[in-house]
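## tool: complex_structure
## caller: assistant
## args:
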Amino acid sequence: MAASESNQSNASPLLESVSLFQGLTPAERQEIYQAAHLRAVEKGELFFVQGEEAHTLYVLTRGRVRLNQLSPEGEQVLLRVIVPGQLFGGVAVLSGTTYPVAAEAVAASEALGWDGETMARLMERYPTIARNALRLLAERIQELQERYRELATERVERRVASAVLRLARQTGRKVEGGVLIDFPLSREDLAAMTGTTLYTVSRILKRWEKQGLVEAGRQRLLIRSPHGLVVLAEDLPPAMDAPR
Amino acid sequence: MAASESNQSNASPLLESVSLFQGLTPAERQEIYQAAHLRAVEKGELFFVQGEEAHTLYVLTRGRVRLNQLSPEGEQVLLRVIVPGQLFGGVAVLSGTTYPVAAEAVAASEALGWDGETMARLMERYPTIARNALRLLAERIQELQERYRELATERVERRVASAVLRLARQTGRKVEGGVLIDFPLSREDLAAMTGTTLYTVSRILKRWEKQGLVEAGRQRLLIRSPHGLVVLAEDLPPAMDAPR
DNA sequence: CGCTATTTTGAGATGGCTCAAGCTATGTGG
DNA sequence: CCACATAGCTTGAGCCATCTCAAAATAGCG
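## result:
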């Protein structure tokens, strides 16, 4: 299935910056691109739901996608936000199970998709892809372990600071006066990322606003002083005593 | 380097049940085995420390190994316990960074090790290994995400119940009267797995003991009623009212 | 311009942490 | 073989960070 019926366009602009396909020639990327199908999803719609049989591995090309995990009791955890160039759905396809998360487009989005067999074939033909995938998954594990530790040992304020910084690094857009998180992000979303409640997040943001660290609006967050948040996230004592 | 200088012994007993090497012929496993070096480590010693340049990927053949992550403030989190047949150190080797955790032998242990280049060569020759590795890492990610959600949304008692059940599944030994966790496990260890304190764990275990769910000794835990713990871990209400 | 989702704020409750003290197996050296 | 040292465990009391619940303010959107 061609990526888009009448479209013979070059894959390079889309795939050359995708880390899953690093180390391939333009011709190879073109072939990979031909094997993909493009899927567009409206804001608020889902690429897949949690528990669904995993068939397709996606690379986002436009928009923003959040990966939510729902607990048996119905509480949500926001595991990560996908930006263009990143892989999602891969974990489930590679382990041959059901999707462990839901993928919701938080803005109008498009992604290239390969079904499991196609991707297996491509990896066989181009072992570089498998190597890249291994590296990507390994990095994900490291990040998850890091965040697990954070959740287990740090207080809420610091966890929120880390989450905001991570979002800024991933999806931040430099604007006058700071870095803007470039998609609608509610207090509740931040709470679901950090294992707290929207009330606590609201209070924390208010405090930060008073300290001039951020500017928080409705589903909007502008980071005025990334450094200030780093200080919070890492417990660099602003004072001079008590190294604890 | 031969696995053990004078040892031409068959790899099968050691490697055939290792999921990283599933789908290979005995001859291939033998070759892989030849490329390994065996490392023995005393109880309490480390295979590697956190932050060390990652060179070797291990498969445990005897003993028990715990993977600890140390926070910048010096608090420990126990990420997982490795039992024979399982891979460890792989994440760091595959992503080409430093070990993100320390690996401590909690009993006298032995592991087969392959350095990064050797493993890369083997994977190139036997793509099946790479496929297996992808599957293993993908499963790890799923488990970590699950535990992350748990830590973010569940209360302490339930988290401890889940951790105990996980340990029982992994390292449990059936004995008269229940399932015994088969290595020394302190209250502090359980606390470090679940993001709480040893005091809280102590109280929880006492309560469980009174309910006849477990029998807790010094670094020793016997699960009398796995089902009872499952009920706790999953919030199946034992009473009939207040669905909350 | 009214409706609805989001956010703020207050007040009260509490789960779990902290710190302090005592207890008890287990191993060790005399 | 005993007495002591030690690591691991228990228990109590007080506290506090964070959650809960309730209500009001605000901001977009249709």
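## assistant note: Residues 155-156, 196-197, 199-200, 203, 217-218 of chain B lie near DNA strand C (CB under 10 Å from a C1'). The radius of gyration of chain B is 20 Å. Handing back to user.
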